[in-house]
Amino acid sequence: MKKELTLLREAMKENNIDVYLITMDDDHQSEYVGEYYKEIAFISGFTGSAGKLAVTMEDAGLWTDGRYFVQAERQLSGSGIRLMPMGRPGTPEISDFIAASLPKGGCLGFNGSCVSYSEALKLSEKLSGKNISIRQDLNLPDGFWKDRPKKAVTPCYILSECYSGKAAGDKIKDLLNELSAMGAEAHLISTLDDIAWLLNLRAADIPYNPVFRAFLLIDNGRLRLYTEEGHLSSEVKEYLKSLKVSVDTEEDHIYRDLKKLSAKSILLESSAINAAAGYSIPEGVRIIDRMMPTVRMKSVKNSTEMENLRKAHLKDGLALTRFMYWFKKQVSSGKLTEWSCVEKLHEIRSGAEGFLGESFETISAYGANAAMCHYSPSKELDTPIEPKGLYLVDSGGQYYEGTTDVTRTWSCGPLTDQERLSLTLSVISNMRLADARFLEGTSGAALDYIAREPFWRRGLNYDHGTGHGVGYLLNVHERPVGIRYKAVPERQDQWPFSEGMFVSDEPGLYIEGSHGVRTENMLMCVNDYKNEYGQFCRFEVYTLCPIDKYALDASIMDERDKRLFNAYQEKVLAELSPFLKGEELCWLQDICAPL
């Protein structure tokens, strides 16, 4: 058992807590958080980006989704904490576990700043008949996490309109009009990407996400930003002043001011604000609990963003293609490792103009490690890449022109029939989805079948969504659009498609103990043709990086699959060849030659 779990239970005993809940959220319900907030990793050893931990005096369980089952099994081994695989038969909901674990008259504790308001309300309702008390003012790990990292504070910069495509003043005007139409006198925005998008400001408080910690409160048309002084240069202060946004440099003052709210109604999203904020709203204020307008607004890329994203993917595709060429030349030496590949890819990407950093931690996985779909290597725990089997790299970059996310799986040498089958299915699936035609308003739940049919026909599946929205120089995972057959309410990604929505296309297959494959391109939803049935849409593929045709089993591809594959490779060759020469160009011409 990890000593940190023992220390947590000692703190629970001191505070008369029967069950203590820890989430992976920060104060803003961010998907990725700064080091300060990684309490679950500190206590359990699990380093995935999604999970919740519930601890009693005798038991402890970690709830996570299918992306992390294999990884969590390994990292929780010997910790004293059980994996609770969400969605699997026999796995209780965490709220049911908590309710069953609490004695009558018992006490549930958590940090209300790091648990969503909606979850706190659901727990309160679930426990209402058991005479349970709830304390949401506890941060127990803080008492024994002696070397806890500090909260990051990085300077903000203004994103020029030549990149954003729309002035912040116009975005604010649109938002105020929507609030008026909804009858909301006040509005609380806590999510960092929404604040960054609305104000056309970016920073680097969270690794890979160019955002800054802040709250934004709109009260009867007046905007007030709560953020630390270190974020604000004199230029940014003047810029905010020009937008008529006042600033409070004590971030926690948001709770004080919510308690004094004069508005009679407030629009908020209970799953996107923390419990401490929700409980600060005075009784009598009407809460309009709906998805924030900015979520939908920023998901539809404007024409400037769409054009810039093409440029970003050209830069990024060129970098990844050069990495692929280097990898293919070096892999037979047996000297490559997962970590050396991470470093080399970063080195190549860093040479691109406007590169600001990775958009998430690079997944560089050889062989069986790739069966953990969100596995990442480290310098300390490195794996050699042998000249056989498959190598998977899932990576992305942040550029002034936008955010990228791409996955490729390459052969390192001889492959088994199963490895070839796995990769070929992911390529077939990827290409068929990208070729879809559909009516505007179709959701990702309907489109997902196109991708999964080649797998399901063979009794196979993958435990993650086929696609997720991506922000513009923002978070690599962005609501409200996604492609998945199974609704996951907390992900809120079933929004109907329309032109300008940007989504990933990433089917895969994961064989525990053997290999994992994934093929991922980014797709832009664009209008196709219009007739008496309505507006039809299609996808435009933005990602430009060849697929390893020598790792495929062409015998299981029908003529349409081969045609789609050859057309994609031809597009990659046409777009990238002007920037390559010599051996690199010859190699690209060969890898992109038709099947």
CATH topology of the largest domain: Creatine Amidinohydrolase
CATH architecture heading of the largest domain: Alpha-Beta Complex
How large is the count of helical segments? Answer: 18
Shape: globular
| Sequence stretches where pLDDT stays below 50 over 5 or more residues | none
CATH class category name of the largest domain: Alpha Beta
CATH superfamily of the largest domain: Creatinase/methionine aminopeptidase superfamily
Determine the structural class based on helices, strands and strand pairing. Answer: alpha+beta
What percent strand?
15-25%
Rounded radius of gyration (Å): 24 Å
Separation, N- and C-terminal Cα atoms? 54 Å
Write down the overall mean pLDDT: 96
Order of strands in the sheet with most strands: 4-3-2-1-5-6
Number of domains: 3
Q: How would you sum up the major sheet?
A: 6 strands, mixed
Description:
The chain has about 600 residues and is of the alpha+beta class. It folds into three domains: about 5-145, Creatinase/prolidase N-terminal domain (Creatine Amidinohydrolase, Chain A, domain 1); about 155-295, Creatinase/prolidase N-terminal domain (Creatine Amidinohydrolase, Chain A, domain 1, 3-Layer(aba) Sandwich); about 300-590, Creatine Amidinohydrolase (Alpha-Beta Complex), CATH 3.90.230.10. Helix content is about 35%, strand content about 20%. The strands form eight sheets. It has a six-stranded mixed β-sheet with strand order 4-3-2-1-5-6, sandwiched between helices. Strands 12-11-10-8-13-14 form a six-stranded mixed β-sheet. The protein has a four-stranded antiparallel β-sheet with strand order 21-28-27-24. A hairpin with a 2-residue loop joins strand 10 and strand 11 (about 220-225). Helix 13 (about 305-330) crosses helix 14 and helix 15 (about 415-435) runs antiparallel to helix 16.
